[in-house]
Amino acid sequence: MISSQRKSHKYIWLVITIVMPILLVMTLNDLSFSSESNSVKMEKLTVSLKGNIVQIELNQPFQSPSPVVYELDDKGRSGKILGQLKGIGKYKFSASKAVNGIVVMDAIKKEELFKIEF
User: Fold this and answer.
1) How far does Cα 115 stand from its chain's mean position?
2) First and final C-alpha spacing in the chain
3) Is the overall model pTM greater than 0.85, yes or no?
4) Residue partners of 53: CB distance under 8 A and separation at least 6
5) Which of 30, 65, 85, 108 has the most neighbouring CB atoms within 10 Å?
6) pLDDT tens digits for 49-92?
């Protein structure tokens, strides 16, 4: 190796040794190891709550073109918007710690499509 290759090789490995542990720590922060889980399975969808992560598996599409998922507070009122269901598939939303359930509403017609409390 010539001098310029040795120098670039040294800097590349230095950057890799600094960046890799940082990326590893960032990925471990997103993992949830709690065993506390609430799950409700229905024909149309499956909803589960692990910590503050709401997971929805939609098996059949809603008739509405714009179903939006809201979190429910302790009084049963819809609060923060979690996201939109765009079709069949698995969805993962981050909710607040005090989520007591979810409600799926048609954003255009302002009508409730599905409601579940944990």
Assistant:
1) 18
2) 64
3) no
4) 32, 92, 93, 94, 95
5) 85
6) 887 788 888 888 778 788 888 888 777 677 788 888 888 889 89
